[in-house]
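During the second year of the project, the team shifted from modelling isolated chains to modelling whole assemblies. The rationale, set out in the original proposal, was that interfaces cannot be judged from single-chain predictions alone. As a representative example for this report, we include one of the complexes processed in the last quarter. Its constituent sequences, exactly as entered into the pipeline, are reproduced here:
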Amino acid sequence: MSGFPSDKALVPFVSVENMLALIHRCGIDRCLIELTDAIAADFARWQMFHKAPRVASHSATGVIELMPISDGVSYSFKFVNGHPSNVKRELQTVTAFGVLASVATGYPKLFSEMTLLTALRTAATSALATRMLARSDSSTAAIIGNGAQSEFQIRALAAVCGITSFRLYDIDKLATQRCVANLSGTALKLKVCGCVEAAIEGADVVTTCTADKSHQTILTDNLVGAGVHVNAIGGDCPGKTELHRDVLLRSDIFVEHAEQTRIEGDIQQLDPDHPVTEIWEVMAGVAPGRIRADQITVFDGVGFAIEDFSALRWLWSAVQDTTVTEQLDLIADPDDPRDLFGMIRRYSERNGSNSPSTASTIN
Amino acid sequence: MSGFPSDKALVPFVSVENMLALIHRCGIDRCLIELTDAIAADFARWQMFHKAPRVASHSATGVIELMPISDGVSYSFKFVNGHPSNVKRELQTVTAFGVLASVATGYPKLFSEMTLLTALRTAATSALATRMLARSDSSTAAIIGNGAQSEFQIRALAAVCGITSFRLYDIDKLATQRCVANLSGTALKLKVCGCVEAAIEGADVVTTCTADKSHQTILTDNLVGAGVHVNAIGGDCPGKTELHRDVLLRSDIFVEHAEQTRIEGDIQQLDPDHPVTEIWEVMAGVAPGRIRADQITVFDGVGFAIEDFSALRWLWSAVQDTTVTEQLDLIADPDDPRDLFGMIRRYSERNGSNSPSTASTIN
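Output from the structure prediction step:
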C-alpha cells in the first residue's frame, strides 16, 4: 500500500517565516537583482502572456482581488486585499498569497505567502524601470513617502541601479526615522529632509511611494527638473494620484499595461488617449526608452500580474534543494484517479470499521 | 517580544488527510445533510451575493478556473482545474482548493483542499434539487454513469432524500463494480443493470453523471417517463451534454444560474431564451417547484460558486474546536503594520548579524 499522503498530493508551501529565511540566506540584494532580471525577462516576452483582467470584489471597507496570468506553460494567481481601515485593528492594509501552477496538468506547483514577496517585486519593478529609463550617471534618489515600501525601494535602487545616496521625506517624521533605522548597517548615504523640495534637490531619480488614498499633489510642476526619472508608485488605484497633471504633460510616460494604468495610475488624470509607452516595448526594442539627457521620464507603476508571475517562478527556482518549504497535503490522490470515494472508504478501513462513515447506513 | 509567528499570521488549513478525518468523524451522511442545508440556506438568500463570473484560463490540455463569490460578509474563491488527459499521467482530472476570507478585513480565514469537498457539495446540490423537485414518494433512483461522482450522489440521495434503492449503469462494467464495492456495508439496495433502459425502469429519480466530454445522448426522449425527476450532472461544459433535446423540451427545467448554465449545461442545446427556473426562486418561494405528479423535472446542474462558498462556510464551522486543521504561517504580521521591512531586519538580528541581508551593503 502506498504512503499517505502520496507525493502527488504534496504542494510546497513557503510560509512567512521561510520567506524571511530565504531572504536572509540569499541576501536581499541578490533577491532583488534576481527578481529584477526575472521581471525584465518576462516583460520582454509580453506577447506570450494571456493577460486576464484582475477580478475585484469591492466592499465598504476594502477590496479583495484575484490576479491570474499565464504564459501557456505556467499559470499563477495572487490573492491580495486592500483594507486601509485594517491599520486601526493592528492588521496589515495589504496582505497577499499566491499559487504557481502547471498549465499542462492544472496542478499547483507552489503555494506562497506574497506580502513580503509583493514588496520585493514592487521594488524590483521600480528598479527595472529606473535601470531602463534613468540617466546612466544617476547616483542620487529622492524617496518621497517613507512607509512600508520605502526600504524595499531603496535597497532595490541601490542593488540594481548602483544608486548610493538617498534623500528622504515623509509628512510623518517617525516613518522617516524608522526607514533610516531599518537601513542602518548598510553603507547607503541617507539624508533626512524637511520638505519635498529639499528632498528633490539634486536628485537624479525621484520615487513617490506615499500611502494616502486621495488625489494628492506630492510633486508639483515646478519641482521636477530636466533629466529626472520619476517612479510614481503610490498612485495605484482610482482616486489616488501623486503627480500634478502638468508634470505628466511634460514627461514621457512609461507604464506596465496601459489599459490597467489608465484606470489605476497617475495617468487617470490625463485624456484616455494620451500617448504612453508600455515598458515591454522598451524591453523588446520596439519603442525607445530615454532618448535625451534632459528628458523627464515617468514610470507610472501600479503593479501588474506579470510581476507576481515572475516573482513566483523566481521563488520556485530559489527554493529548489533548500529547506525553506513545507509540503502541504493539498491534492487528493486516490490510488485510481476515477475512485475518489475509495479514499473515504479506505480511510475508514484504516481507522476502524465501526466508524460513522460506514456504519451510518440507511435503514 | 511577541512569538514568531503571531496568531494574526496563522490561517487554518484543512489537508486532504484531515478532510478524510473530518468525514470519518462526522459520518458522511451527516456531512451531506449539513452541506445540503447550508447550500439551501445560501440559495434562499441568492440576492445578497455578489456573483462574479468565473475566470477561466484555457489551454490545449485543459482549463484552470478561479470561482470567486461574496455575500458582503464572507468571500470565497475556488481554484479548480479540468484536464481530461491527466488520467493518462495517473493524475486527477479535476482537483481543487479554496479559501474563505473575511470581507471586513480581507484576511483569509480558512484554506482547504476542495477535491473531496467539491465532490460532497456537488452531491449535496443534486440532493437539494431532488428534495425540492422529485415526487415526495420517490424511493428508487437510476444512476447513469458510475464514475468518481456516483457514490457521492448515491450517498447524498440516500441521506438527504431517503432514497433506498439504486439502479446502476455504466458503459464500463468495472466502474459499476467499483461503485458497488465502495457502497458495501451500507443497507442500500443496489441493482446492477445491463443498459440505460433497464436502469431507468421504475426509477423515480434519474441522475446522469457521465464523464465523456462530448455531446452524448445518454437519455433519449422515449426513456424518460411521466413524473420522473432528472439530475443532469455530467453535462457541465460547452460541448458536453447528456440529455436529448426533446427530453428537455417536454420538461420543466431548473438551474443554478441561468446565465452560466446556458453556456455550460444541457440547455446549451436550447434557444437562449428557453424558459428555465433558477433554484433560488423555488427556495425563496417566488417560483413553483414541482406542481404535478406527472410532470418531468430536470435539474441541469453545472456547479456554481455559491455551493463552494456554502461548503467552505460549513467546513469552517465544522472544524472549530477540532484537531483537523493545521495552522499555516501565511500572513506577514510585523509588530508595526507599517514596518514590513523591519521583519527582515529583525529576522537577520535573530539569526546572526553577519547575515548576507545586512552585510551585503553598497560600497
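Chain B has two domains: 7-116+308-329, 135-303. The two ends of chain B are 33 Å apart (CA to CA).
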